[in-house]
Design brief:
Layout (H helix, E strand, L loop, with lengths): L1 H16 L4 E6 L4 H12 L13 H5 L10 E8 L12 E2 L8 H19 L5 E4 L7 H7 L4 E2 L5 E2 L7 E8 L19 H5 L5 E2 L3 E2 L5 H7 L16 E3 L3 H4 L19 H5 L2 H6 L2 H7 L9 H13 L1
Parallel strand pairs: 3-10
Antiparallel strand pairs: 1-2, 2-7, 4-7, 5-6, 8-9
Helix pairs in contact: 1-4
Length: 309
């Protein structure tokens, strides 16, 4: 028991050393309630064309299928809230994409965390996951006491709001576990529901992913965006932050200290005309480490044209 407590303290200390902002730990077990909610969400087609979300369902709900013998799920939060803002005449880009791709930044930190655990605690089997694998990160963050799930579907941390990346490290090491936050601190507030430009946020914390601006501008690979959505994107070219920007809890957001998330100057300053005249070669060079790669050059050009109508 003493070892468990000491190892837990060690790991949380390593997490702080690596620059993560918060850490919580939950017992590795099947996510029964979350599995049912996910199944219902998928059956209603609320994921749109994101077919990949239907894959590996059993892995999403059971961490022992990802790491044999898994005992603990370590969840970490990394703040990405930028100090700088975009120029007012630039097409809007979600704040998470201002700097380098978070996958690259966080994977290195998770690898370093596992190395530290093996060096100081002993041989531990584990795998780190950042968004791109079948892991329900928000569920684990909630279970480990890092926040509650808001009406906009985001994890909200009481100290600093929701501008965080969530990552997990699943290990076969028994640790002390944090208690989930029992209360939902959104209360009767519905600012995110009322402010969503496309009505993608519905009652009961159900998000219609197929109507979200982020879905249209990043995930949807069609050559053209739907005509009936013209005028609804509020100048968002890549992603959307409306539901976070209006959330009262984000008044506590603090600028990130992660150097990797320093904004790319072009993202802050490019005008619509400059985005239109950008060549594919220049796009690949300027944004080679940026999340904008996900939409590709053709997707960005499509989005810019759509905003112009």
């Amino acid at each position: 028991m003493a070892n468990k407590a000491y190892h837990t303290q060690q790991i949380k200390s390593f997490v702080r050393e690596l620059g993560f902002d918060f850490c919580g730990i939950a017992r590795a077990q099947q996510l029964g309630d979350d599995a049912r909610r996910l199944e219902q969400w998928l059956s209603k087609g609320l994921h749109g064309n994101m077919q990949y979300m239907e894959n590996y369902f059993d892995l999403r709900i059971d961490p022992t299928k990802l790491v044999p013998g898994a005992r603990s799920v370590i969840t970490v939060l990394l703040n990405y809230f930028p100090q700088q803002t975009q120029q007012t005449n630039t097409p809007h880009i979600s704040k998470y994409a201002f700097g380098n791709d978070y996958h690259e930044v966080i994977k290195k930190k998770l690898h370093a965390l596992l190395v530290l655990i093996n060096e100081h605690i002993g041989e531990v089997q584990g795998r780190g996951f950042v968004d791109s694998a079948p892991v329900l990160e928000r569920s684990w963050a909630h279970r480990s006491g890092l926040g509650w799930i808001g009406k906009n579907g985001n994890l909200i941390n009481k100290q600093q709001g929701s501008f965080f990346f969530i990552a997990t490290l699943i290990v076969d090491l028994e640790l002390e576990y944090d208690d989930p936050i029992a209360k939902d601190y959104c209360g009767s507030c519905r600012r995110c529901i009322d402010a969503c430009p496309t009505g993608a946020i519905t009652e009961g914390k159900v998000i219609n992913g197929s109507q979200c601006i982020s879905y249209y501008t990043i995930e949807l690979k069609d050559l053209l965006l739907p005509d009936d959505k013209k005028g609804q994107f509020a100048d968002w070219m890549f992603g959307c932050d409306v539901c976070q920007d209006v959330c009262p809890w984000n008044r506590f957001a603090k600028p990130t200290s992660e150097a990797g998330f320093t904004p790319i100057p072009e993202i802050l300053n490019f005008t619509t005309k400059e985005w239109e005249s950008l060549t594919e070669e220049a796009f690949k060079q300027i944004f080679r480490h940026s999340p904008l790669k996900r939409a590709k050059f053709q997707g960005i050009q499509r989005n810019v044209k759509f905003l112009k109508g």
